[in-house]
Design goal:
By secondary structure, the chain is α/β, with parallel strands linked by helices. 26% of the residues lie in helices and 16% in strands. The protein has a single domain, classed as Alpha-Beta Barrel (TIM Barrel). It is built from eleven helices and 13 strands. It is globular and about 60 Å long. Bound molecules: S-adenosylmethionine and iron/sulfur cluster (SF4) (2 copies).
Length: 387
């Protein structure tokens, strides 16, 4: 075992009860938490399994053949996910992201996509339905996902150099196959907006100082002018197994400085409230943002906390509701939902009650801590609640 890897304590065993409050809370789309933040995004983890072993997420030493993944009966069924999703939408959710683990490993995922794509908001609008994937199975599945109603996709890719990429996914997976997945997504029309512009196809690159800093410029060069938006993510102290330390974090400000050496960049306005990425547009020779060249984003989860606008809830693979990526416990919606007689109104009340009491702002609080290492609390793994 590598020295830095911390043994896993199974947080999945711990759960908070999701209870129905004595005063019903109707789903009217007006919910806010105790810090005034609305409920807008729902991330749904559809599997805790993955075919990659990225060392910042599912290090091989922990996620090995002895690791106990959730048994199939513990997973929410597609019908259960859709039932909960409808309640969340009635409460104000407008965007759903499917994630994992690797979501494309969940069998027949396009059936779930179809069910979610048919949900309408109270004013009759479809949801913004998207998915985050490592891209390994995307070439095979992009068209079926698009046909089922998926709007957009984000592909994680940590470098273009094949040796570096194989090292980071730690299962010797070739970069060419992920690039083929991205090409298939583009070909299928994933990420096209209502005007037919490619605005929703994104590539996320986690930057680790010791590993892939020299991939920043090649990645930018590769995706500039393609309509695909590249976003750089600060390596986060999520979970308890990746042995995170601050030395490995390349702050977004340094990423931008790095990029500016090759390409002039102009800061752009956020496209939506609560957006996690700061946007920068490529400039033309006149120093103006050139939409044809596109944009890059930086997600500064470590150096610039964005908790104040955090409007995201997370539903784990077996139906626990997490209010923060760094939460230590989730609320057991599955148990409540599987009880005889629980109505959708009961679920709405329980979810409403939980959200109204939410006060999570982990990153903001961590920013004020003197230490350069992750606090010693035991947290859930990102592969379990999804990124
Ligand atoms: N398997 C899919 C994938 O990799 O896209 C979806 C799940 S993955 C947990 C979601 C996102 O979280 C990916 O973009 C991944 O790079 C990111 N991620 C995982 N661990 C991270 C960490 N420690 N710091 C920053 N990002 C991380
Ligand atoms: Fe798998 Fe995604 Fe985690 Fe990598 S980041 S190990 S692809 S879940
Ligand atoms: Fe949201 Fe928690 Fe991340 Fe803050 S730390 S932005 S509350 S998920």
């Amino acid at each position: 075992m590598s020295e830095r890897v911390i043994p896993l304590v199974d947080q999945r065993l711990q759960a908070l009860a999701a209870t129905i409050p004595s005063q019903a809370i109707a789903a009217q789309g007006l919910l806010s938490d105790s810090l005034g933040r609305p409920l807008h995004d729902l991330r749904i983890s559809v599997t805790d399994r993955c075919n990659f072993r990225c060392n910042y997420c599912m290090p091989k030493e922990v996620f090995n053949k002895d690791y106990a993944y959730l048994p199939h009966g513990d997973l929410l069924s597609f019908e259960e996910i859709t039932r909960l999703a409808k309640v969340f939408v009635a409460h104000g959710v407008r965007k759903i992201r499917l994630t994992g683990g690797e979501p494309l490993l969940r069998k027949n995922l396009e059936i779930l996509v179809d069910q979610l794509a048919n949900i309408r908001t109270p004013d009759g609008t479809p949801l913004d339905l998207t998915l985050t994937t490592n891209g390994s199975l995307l070439a095979r599945k992009a068209q079926a996902l698009k046909d089922a109603g998926l709007n957009r996709v984000t592909v994680s890719l940590d470098g273009l150099d094949d040796a570096i990429f194989r090292q980071m996914n730690d299962v010797d997976f070739p970069v060419a196959d992920v690039l083929a997945g991205i090409a298939a997504a583009k070909e299928a029309g994933l990420g096209l907006d209502a005007q037919g512009q490619l605005t929703g196809l994104k590539v996320n690159m986690v930057v680790k100082r010791s590993t892939n800093v020299d991939q920043i410029l090649p990645m930018a060069r590769h995706f500039r002018g393609t309509g695909i938006t590249l976003r750089f993510i600060e390596y986060m102290d999520v979970g308890a197994t990746n042995g995170w330390c601050m030395d490995e974090v390349l702050p977004s400000a340094e990423v931008i400085a790095h990029l500016q050496q090759a390409f002039p960049l102009i800061p752009l306005e956020p496209s939506a409230p609560g957006e996690t990425a700061q946007r920068w547009g490529y400039a033309n020779a006149a120093g103006q943002f050139d939409p044809a060249l596109g944009e890059v984003g930086v997600i500064s989860s470590v150096t610039q906390a964005f908790c104040r606008d955090c409007n995201r809830a997370r539903l784990s693979t077996e139906g626990k509701l997490y209010l923060c990526l760094f939460a230590t416990q989730g609320y057991d919606l599955r148990h409540l939902m599987r009880q005889d007689g629980t109505t959708d109104a009961d679920l709405a009340s329980a979810i409403g009650h939980i959200w109204q009491h939410r006060d999570d702002r982990y990153s903001e609080l961590r920013a004020h801590q003197p230490t350069d290492s992750a606090p010693a609390v035991r947290r859930v793994e990102m592969s379990y609640i999804g990124g």
